[in-house]
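Mods, move this if it's the wrong board.
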Amino acid sequence: MHTIRGKAEASRRIVSICACLFFFVVSPGHADARGVAVAAQRVYLQADTLKLNIELDSLFSRRALDAIASGLITSVVMEFRLDSDRRSKALVYTLGMRLDHDIWEGRYHVVRDAGRRDTLQTTDFDSVSTFCSTLHGLSLGPLPEGRSFRLRLRVGVTPISIEQEQRSRRWLNVLQKGSLLELFFSLDRPSERTPWIEIGRYSPEDLQ
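Not the wrong board. C-alpha cells:
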C-alpha cells in the first residue's frame, strides 16, 4: 500500500515539475526581450517612398530559443514608428512573422508579411535567424513632412502553445476574420514587447 502511495506521489511531483518547466517556457520573456539591438540600418528614398534596410542583433532571447527548440509556435511582431518635428500624426508600420518548428522532421517554416508574403523552409536555424532579423527594401510609407523625423522600432517575440493558437483561431473565426497575422497580433501582448528602440534621426537632405 505504501509502495502504491509512494509511486502516486512521485508521479504527481513529476507532473508538477513538468508543468512548472512548461510555464517557464511559455511565460513572457520581458527582461530578455530588452537585449534586441540594431546592428545595421539604412534609410533611403525610392521615388516618393521611404524605405529601410535593417539588421537586428539578438532578436531571439534564450527563453525564446528554448521555446522554439521545444516545438512551440513563435510570433514575431515588429512595429516601426515615424515621428515628424511638425507634430503631425505618427506613421506606424507593423510587420508580422510566424515561426513553426517541426521537431520530428527537424525543419523550420517561417511566414513573413512585409507587404507581400514571404516564406522560408529550412533545417538550418541560422538561416531562420537571418531571415527574421534582416529586412531589405521595407516600404515604410511617404516621407514625413517637416525638417526632420525620427524612426523607432518595437519588437515582440511571443512563444505560443497549440492550445492558445486553437482558442484564438476559434475566436477570430467567430468574428469572421481568421487572418494568419491577425491571429498572432491578437496573441502578442504589450508586456512582451521591447521598449521603443531609436533607429535614427533624419532630415530630407540626408536621404538624397
